[in-house]
Design a protein that fits this description.
This protein has 153 residues and is an alpha+beta fold. It has one domain. The chain has five helices and nine strands. The protein is globular and about 40 Å long.
Length: 153
């Protein structure tokens, strides 16, 4: 497994923790938080940080039934102006602190370093990402990766 979520937490607990830490955009830049260190595993700029649109992922905040119990996650993404978005989830770690996990299945990790405009032809529509055309974006694979990697202890 490798990562552990705190049990007996709700979606509201996760939302409150995100808000108490200054909101999504502040969290990823706060070097005192574990989330910051978790996201440093990907070498990219975080020009754009937001929750994945519900039209692409379903509910932005979801309960996951994992090994050992259920836990809440928030689906997020980050990218630089000329990069494919990288998806990640926020969750409450076993120690009660906010954590981030970057699924390696169904995600755009291999494109994080790609900054060539021709790679993205057809993926931007009206200034917004067309999530259906993002390379390697597969919400089902990502959820499976989350379930296999994070458990409640």
């Amino acid at each position: 497994m490798g990562r552990y979520a705190k049990g007996n937490q709700t979606i509201e607990d996760l939302k409150r923790m995100i808000e108490d830490n200054g909101g999504l955009k502040e969290i990823v830049y706060n070097s005192k938080l574990k989330v910051y260190k978790d996201l440093l595993k990907i070498d990219m700029d975080f020009d754009v940080i937001d929750f994945i649109p519900e039209s692409a992922i379903g509910e932005q905040f979801q309960m996951v039934s994992g090994v050992g119990g259920d836990y809440p996650i928030a689906w997020c993404y980050a990218n630089a102006e000329d990069e494919q978005p990288i998806m990640f989830v926020l969750y409450i770690g076993q120690d009660g602190k906010l954590r981030a996990y970057i699924p390696d299945s169904g995600n755009n990790i291999c494109n994080a370093h790609t900054r060539y405009k021709e790679t993205f032809e057809g993926t931007i529509y009206g200034g917004k990402w067309d999530w259906r055309k993002c390379y390697f974006f597969d919400p089902d694979w990502m959820m499976e990766c989350v379930r296999n990697r994070i458990s409640v202890k």
